[in-house]
Amino acid sequence: MEPGALGDEFGGSSGADGSNGGGNGDSGGGANEFDFAAPATDQSFENALAKARDGARLTVDDATELLATGTERAGIDSVRKEAVLEAADRRRAEEVGDEVTFVANLNNNVTTACNTGCLFCNFKDSAHAFEADSDVEHAGFTKTPAESRAVVEDALDMGIYEVCSVSGLHPAFALNEEHHEILAAHDDPASEVNYKPPEAYATDPGTYVEQMDAMSVGGVHLHSMTPEEAYHAKRGTDWEYEAVYRELAEAGLDSAPGTAAEILVDEVRDVICPGKIRTDDWVAAMEGAAAAGLDVTSTMMYGHVETVAHRAKHLKVIRDLQDRTGAITEFVPLSFIHQNTPLYRRGVVDSGPSRDEDELVVAVARLFLDNVDHVQASWVKSGDAHGLKLLNCGADDFMGTILSEEITSRAGGEYGEYRSFGDYVEMITAIGRTPVERSTDYRKRRRIDPDDGPHGPRLGPRADGTPLLSERSSGEGSRGDATATPPADADD
Ligand SMILES: C[S@@+](CC[C@H](N)C(=O)[O-])C[C@H]1O[C@@H](n2cnc3c(N)ncnc32)[C@H](O)[C@@H]1O
Ligand SMILES: Nc1c(NC[C@H](O)[C@H](O)[C@H](O)CO)[nH]c(=O)[nH]c1=O
Ligand SMILES: N[C@@H](Cc1ccc(O)cc1)C(=O)O
Ligand code: SF4
Predict the structure, then answer these.
(1) What is residue 471's DSSP assignment?
(2) Which of these, 29, 67, 78, 457, could form a disulfide with 463 (CB 3.0-4.6 Å)?
(3) What DSSP state is assigned to residue 234?
(4) How far is the CA of 81 from the centre of ligand 4 (A)?
(5) Is the peptide bond before 457 cis (omega within 30 degrees of 0)?
(6) Angstrom distance (rounded) from CA 169 to CA 172
(7) 433-470: per-residue pLDDT in tens?
(8) Biased-composition ranges for Low complexity (predicted)?
(9) Distance, CA of 63 to CA of 315 (rounded, Å)
């Protein structure tokens, strides 16, 4: 399980994409080398709260005060926190009512090979371990397009609506054949454009277009190609993001996940993901996806080295993007899972966020993002009990069934990789809300009658209401964590 997290991300290969690797190993050298100033604003907590209660558009300073429960003293004030949560919960009820949505979906990640070296990530395995002549042991995988298709086909038969696919930046990945030729024409493709030909690897992931085509089967909704992946699919060219997303859409892509956002402030990215695209590029990729007619989601991975002021600035980037595009369907707060990560193991951070911080992030997202309808609570990151609590802090969506999970679990997350419809119905009704099966874009919704079990998906192209996997009988109260056998991964 544990992919040898510490210090060996790059093995001998020196930062193949040029912008990371070398510096990466030093990032954890001493605590606080980033040393961000403690946030301070000209706003008071009380004024910010009053504005939030009135429904006024909040500023970055307002959001900073609310996230901090006042910047004038350190630590979270529990009375103030409750006031923020209450305002957000009321706003949620006014805007989207009492329904709690979730989607019948599958995670089908294609490859864990990645040289980008993000210090919060244990999903990736150094790409050189995947080379045909490598004898480096690793727990990662690469799927061929045919293998991806088979996994999606199986899940479609089970009734899923969406496949969510996010992957490492495999050096052999290219958008299409023309891209392969452009990349291969470089004098030193590995160091100049993070490229090695598919023949160098034990398993060929195919092109991005081939993977999209393979996964877009039987009318499933394909949710894939994060901004970082879109960057990889155009590296070494002057192609526009819009053109890249158009080509992917023609191959079957329906919407794009807004991960790779982390914290959209470059001084934070310089510490936690120096090899990743910068904030401007992330925004450009999302705008390109929107211009190509795709919906997108938005995320924030918080609770590592950033301050509350960085979180507030991040929310402003998202709100501005949504003002310009209207393409964002939801905001997904991603609570940093620290246990196995280089950031933690190297002593750069000593934990992830507290539950108070999780609750305030959800609440302030609801209050600040007045143009994004849906805020997600994640059972993967927070577990069932705290996930349900987040649904009373401003969130209205409880993500999806996912069937398999590789990012959070590898980082040390403990909440499993699957929730059944029976689990969802039991949990959501337990907090007095209405369970609703949704489409990825939230436009299709089906209210579920809790008394009409056993429960299964009905919106997927092949869904007929049969429970997804062998469901424990509803009403047993023995939900527990993942018991499902995830679809088999292909090993390299
Ligand atoms: C693992 S990447 C895969 C897709 C692609 N390589 C990218 O970076 O966009 C997807 C996202 O998972 C999230 N993630 C990775 N490690 C995490 C951790 N330890 N805790 C919480 N979220 C994490 C990050 O937000 C990251 O952008
Ligand atoms: N929050 C997490 C998600 N969310 C994704 C959703 O399941 C779904 O794909 C999205 O809402 C679009 O419809 N997925 C994860 O794997 N891990 C999370 O923490
Ligand atoms: N939340 C992303 C997808 C995602 C999130 C977190 C993960 O760890 C993986 C994938 C989206 O729905 O757009
Ligand atoms: S977050 Fe994405 S880009 Fe960064 S190391 Fe992990 S898989 Fe690679």
Answers:
(1) P
(2) 457
(3) T
(4) 33
(5) no
(6) 9
(7) 999 999 999 999 999 999 999 999 999 999 999 999 86
(8) 470-492
(9) 9
Asked if 349 and 126 touch (Cβ cutoff 8 Å), the reply is no
Phi-psi region of 155 (alpha: psi -120 to 50; beta: other; left: phi over 0): alpha
The pTM of the full predicted model, rounded to 2 decimals, is: 0.91
Side chain identity, residue 437: E
CA distance 301 to 60: 18
Tokens (6 digits) for 222? 């394909």
- In the chain, the amino acid numbered 98 is D
Q: Residues near 343 by Cβ (< 8 Å), separated by ≥ 6?
A: 28, 119, 120, 272, 304, 305, 349
How does strand 295-302 pair with strand 255-256? parallel
Q: What is the mean pLDDT of residues 399-425?
A: 96
Cα dihedral across residues 107, 278, 292, 240: positive or negative:
negative
> What gap in Å lies between CA 176 and CA 206, rounded to an integer?
9
Other C-beta atoms closer than 10 Å to the C-beta of 149 total 20
Distance 168 CA to ligand 4 centre (A): 6
CB 395 near ligand 2, within 6 Å: no
330: enclosing H helix or E strand:
strand 328-335
Picking from 66, 65, 48, the residue whose alpha carbon sits closest to that of residue 57 is 48
Distance between CA atoms of 374 and 365, rounded to whole angstroms?
Answer: 10
Q: What are phi and psi of 468, to 5 degrees?
A: -60, -55
H or E segment at 244?
A: helix 241-250
d(CA 436, CA 145): 32
Q: Is the CB of 164 under 6 A from ligand 3?
A: yes
Whole-angstrom distance, CA of residue 33 vs CA of residue 393: 34
Q: How far is the CA of 167 from the centre of ligand 4 (A)?
A: 8
